[in-house]
Design a protein that fits this description.
It is a single chain. The chain has 24 helices and 46 strands. 25% of the residues lie in helices and 24% in strands. The model is unreliable at 1-25, 52-106, 120-129 and 591-604 (pLDDT under 50). The chain is of the alpha+beta class.
């Protein structure tokens, strides 16, 4: 087996195959007991393990924890943690003879992919995310108040809106319940006839007039299905008694079913008795829907049977029905004289000849419009619905009103109804559209009706309805608007102080549910504080440190909620790290986490991802599982002192901490691994990757996550040879180092001139140009290049100031300290490099290889140039034409080089990679091969050396990223050739494969 391993590691032509990224304990123990001790380190490296030193009993101090998002000048925080949190040493350093079992790397790794800081807030250290002024000024006194806050303008009892005006209904009732009776005036015509006929006049005849019948029966049907019309039935009875009197008027109520038991009232006493037919000639009127509002067919059959009995006994009753004609079963017309009771009705007997196909109205739209008119209301009774029906344009009839009571979006009880949770929001857009089409008078009438009908409910329902109208865009009267805002503000404060009040807590939960949809709540200024305090109360009742929030909260809403629930505490350290496949957030003061056994105890420290120094009591965690499901929770850090929060090991994690948020991706190794990587893993120093040179030398690179800068914004992440936890990121050869929007840089002092170098991380790219690129030459064969080694690249070409200070002469034709040195040959550059080696040995500067130059020029782009848009002289110093060697300068333009940093840099911070001067490369010139190349350096020797980048003298096609030129090393007669310095990383490999360590 060992021979096979050696064969693999010694094979330079084959890529090194890393072992399992997760190896179980049995496999590792088998390897440790089977192999010789001197081979343990080799097999551990192959299997993906790293060695950590022996841990003593003495506590070890971590490097100072500094807030990753605090202002400059924040003090570091030292933290003493358990000895198992010691950082592992580099594999290339000295190892202790004794060691604990190796820590296995996991199959998936966490990596910070973005960071941002809210710059709109005050950044004072003691400041928390601010709350609005009303929040601090609101009064938590509503539970102690007894008087209503409803404005007097709405405390006016609304009149009941009748189905039909009484002036139209009275003649109809007189006709149905009337008869010819003898009046007081003598009938002279009849008297003359009697005298002419010689009849004896015993009694003076009187004129006949039509009046109320001496006897009449009114049968009222009030049941659960037609209960919304109860007031209409009772109001008609009341007026009928007032006008006719109750003498001879028999008012009965159906008690169970028609033709069965009835109820009547005698001096306010209810009398239950069987139905009996009236005396002959007594008119009958029935107030009922005849089961047209019922979902049961059996009730309809009961009415049909009752009608048959009446007809058999000689009666045909008239039925006044609050039902649209289109909804009436035609079979009822055989036994009853049916009349539609509505303001749109002619109050005529129905003949059953309604033609539905001639009705052009779209009734569904009318019903939806009526529901939309009720959108702002919390509780709607029959009077309000009727009033809104008459207010809305479009001629809504009794059928539309009835359909609302039976609609799936509402839940009704008696003569009131409310919205089903989750159904109301579907009418939001329709409500906006409806209100927009109302006149200003109709809009104010809508406010008045809603206010007056809600004024007789508790204050919370009234003010919620008024606020809903405001959210819909209506302008409330000044007194109503001020009272509404003040009430809701005080309600928030009252709930904050009294979350344990069950009635108040219950209303808040219902209020939140009624406004939960993002489309409805986004203008609700008080929904988020209600939500924040409600969820905190629920968590307190359950004793949870984790609070789950609606999965559709936006980033702005999360920040707002944090402003309500966070409190200032002493700044505390926290560690975000990867333990096996888990993402863990734990207090930096935690001595140790409970583990299952000693084996896991060695791995508990995990891979440190981020050090935090926080004063916020709560943070938000948003988890996207990658399948469209999102979960948002907040964590109470006050409870993290003796425990750790663990998160799912898949998808994407976003943390909102104070003003900062950062996103962490967890991706399987196979997905995250780039082609320059031989292996990717995580250890106590964070996420790292390993690359291998063609000499089988393995180098380790550490991921530096993105950071937020208050001035530059988001700073990109990068791979670097020093870990995030290193004491300093500044190379020993540099006088300064840092990161900006382009990446990481280091400044070198060369003969009194500060030259900035940009760090270019290991990568891969397509070198050369596609066949359809304008200006392409035959020697630009496109092929893939993998650069396994990061390198440093000067951000500008060598200036005349730098050259002169080192070489003590200036060969340039176009003089200027900040202009690039030109008229230098390849051999001249080698002379300068030798002088640098002698006087600045730590710098180890060189020319870039051709592959390094093109990779740096492209900066991740794939087009002909590394900038967007068309080639022009305001972007590149060149001759002014693209395809041929002629000049196109304006009269006021100089045909010469320009100062470095005259044009904006590319995405990696490198200036003038296109034009100005040709740049010498280290490579001898040769034609490309079409296959993949790793770390190319050109041929060992040739006649000419490579030039790149074009110049002020050449056309645009020569300035392309892929354009190549070449010349003999001694050629220095041109005033358009210069160079750019580069540097290798200079670190030692962590191991060399095939070599027993």
């Amino acid at each position: 087996m060992i021979n096979k391993i050696a064969d693999i590691t010694k094979s330079a032509g084959q890529p090194f195959v890393r072992g399992k990224s997760c190896v179980n304990r049995a496999e590792l123990l088998w390897g440790l007991t089977t192999l010789n001790p001197e081979q343990h380190e080799q097999i551990a490296a192959i299997l993906g393990f790293e060695k950590i030193p022996v841990v003593t009993d003495q506590p070890v101090l971590l490097p100072p924890l500094q807030s990753d998002f605090a202002e400059d000048g924040d003090k570091d925080v030292d933290n003493q943690i358990d000895s198992d949190d010691v950082m592992p040493t580099d594999l290339g350093s000295e190892h202790s003879e004794e060691s604990v079992p190796s820590v296995a790397t996991s199959a998936s790794y966490y990596r910070i992919t973005s960071r941002a800081v809210d710059q709109t807030q005050n950044h004072a250290e003691t400041d928390v995310m601010g709350s609005p002024n009303w929040f601090t000024q609101a009064s938590p006194t509503l539970l102690q108040e007894t008087a209503t806050r409803i404005p007097a303008s709405h405390q006016v009892k609304p009149l009941h809106t009748e189905l039909t005006v009484w002036s139209r209904l009275l003649p109809f009732l007189q006709k149905i319940l009337g008869d010819q009776v003898e009046g007081r005036k003598p009938d002279t015509v009849q008297l003359v006839k009697q005298v002419a006929n010689g009849e004896m006049i015993r009694r003076i005849p009187r004129k006949q007039r039509y009046s109320w019948s001496a006897k009449a029966r009114v049968l009222i049907d009030i049941n659960d299905d037609n209960f919304p019309y109860r007031r209409d039935f009772l109001k008609l009875r009341e007026r009928l008694v007032q006008l006719r009197g109750d003498e001879g008027l028999d008012v009965q109520y159906i008690y169970d079913e028609p033709g069965g038991t009835i109820a009547r009232y005698d001096q306010q006493h209810e009398i239950i008795e069987p139905w009996r037919a009236p005396e002959p000639g007594t008119p009958i009127i029935i107030l009922s829907d005849l089961a047209m509002h019922s979902q049961s067919r059996q009730v309809l059959y009961s009415w049909l049977a009752f009608g048959q009995i009446l007809n058999a006994q000689g009666w045909r009753a008239t039925v006044l029905m609050p039902v649209a004609e289109r909804n009436i079963d035609s079979r009822l017309l055989k036994y009853f004289d049916c009349v539609v009771w509505d303001r749109t009705s002619r109050l005529k007997l129905l003949k059953g000849d309604v033609q539905f196909e001639k009705e052009r109205r779209h009734h569904t739209n009318s019903i939806d419009q009526l529901l939309s008119a009720c959108f702002a209301s919390v509780r709607i009774d029959s009077g309000l619905l009727r009033a809104l029906r008459y207010l809305m344009p479009g001629g809504h009839d009794i059928g539309h009103e009835t359909a609302v009571w039976r609609h799936a979006a509402v839940i009704s009880e008696g003569d009131e109804w409310g919205w089903q949770v989750g159904s109301k929001i579907h009418f939001l857009e329709k409500a906006h559209h409806l209100i927009a089409n109302l006149s200003s008078e109709q809009q104010q009438k809508l406010i008045e009706l809603t206010g007056r009908f809600h004024a007789f409910y508790p204050d919370v329902l009234y003010f919620e309805a008024m606020y809903n109208l405001k959210l819909l865009g209506l302008t409330l009267p000044n007194d109503v608007d001020a009272a509404t805002e003040k009430f809701l503000q005080d309600m928030v404060a009252t709930y904050r102080e009294n979350p344990q009040n069950n009635l108040l807590h219950g209303w808040v939960k219902r209020h939140l549910a009624r406004h939960e949809s993002p489309a409805w709540r986004h203008r609700h200024a008080y929904w988020l504080p209600f939500l924040a305090f409600s969820r905190m109360q629920d968590a307190q009742l359950k004793g949870n440190a984790e609070i789950e929030w609606p999965s559709n909260l936006t980033q702005s809403e999360i920040e707002t909620v944090l402003g309500y629930i966070n409190q200032i505490q002493m700044r505390q350290p926290y560690l975000l790290r990867q333990e096996a496949n888990k993402l863990v957030l734990a207090s930096g003061n935690t001595v140790s986490l409970k583990t299952l056994d000693d084996w896991e105890n060695h791995a508990q420290s995990g891979a440190l991802i981020l050090k935090l120094s926080l004063e916020d009591t709560r943070i938000f965690h948003i988890h996207d599982d990658g399948r469209g499901q999102q979960r948002i929770v907040s964590l109470d850090l006050a409870q993290a002192e003796n425990r750790a929060f663990k998160f799912p090991s898949n998808g994407q994690h976003t943390f909102q901490i104070g003003r900062e948020r950062f996103t962490i991706d967890v991706i399987a190794t196979q997905q995250q691994k780039q082609d320059w990587m031989q292996f990717i893993g995580s250890g106590s120093e964070g996420l790292y990757a390993e690359s291998m040179s063609q000499q089988n030398e393995v180098y380790r690179w550490y991921w530096h996550p993105p950071e937020w800068d208050s001035q530059a914004g988001m700073l990109p992440g990068f791979w670097f040879y020093l870990s995030v936890s290193a004491d300093t990121q500044k190379p020993d050869w540099a006088v300064a180092a840092g990161r900006d929007q382009y990446g990481f840089y280091a400044d070198a002092d060369i003969a009194g001139v500060i030259q900035r170098f940009r760090w270019i991380e290991p990568t891969s790219f397509m070198m050369g140009s596609p066949e359809d690129e304008i200006g392409r030459k035959d020697d630009e064969i496109q092929h893939k290049v993998i650069l396994t080694q990061g390198y440093w690249m000067a951000d500008t070409t060598c200036t005349q100031a730098l050259w002169s200070n080192l070489m003590h002469h200036n060969p340039s034709r176009f003089k200027g300290e900040l202009k690039p040195v030109e008229s230098v040959c390849w051999n001249d550059v080698q002379d300068l490099l030798q002088r640098l080696k002698k006087y600045y040995s730590l710098l180890r500067l060189r020319l870039p290889t051709e592959a390094e130059w093109e990779n740096a020029c492209r900066a991740g782009t794939t087009g002909a140039f590394n900038f967007e848009g068309e080639l022009s002289r305001d972007k590149v110093n060149y001759s002014g034409n693209l395809d041929y060697e002629s000049f196109n300068w304006n009269k006021d333009e100089s045909m010469q080089t320009i100062n470095v940093k005259n044009y904006p840099p590319n995405l990696w911070g490198l200036f003038e990679m296109h034009g100005n001067v040709w740049e010498w490369c280290q490579d001898w010139y040769s034609r490309y091969q079409a296959e993949l190349v790793i770390d190319p350096k050109g041929p060992v020797s040739a006649h000419t050396c490579v030039l790149r980048g074009g110049s002020w003298y050449r056309s645009g096609k020569s300035c392309r990223s892929a354009s190549r030129d070449h010349d003999v090393p001694l050629s220095h007669s041109y005033n358009f050739t210069g160079f750019r310095l580069a540097r290798s990383h200079g670190i030692k490999p962590v191991r060399v494969l095939g070599k027993v360590q």
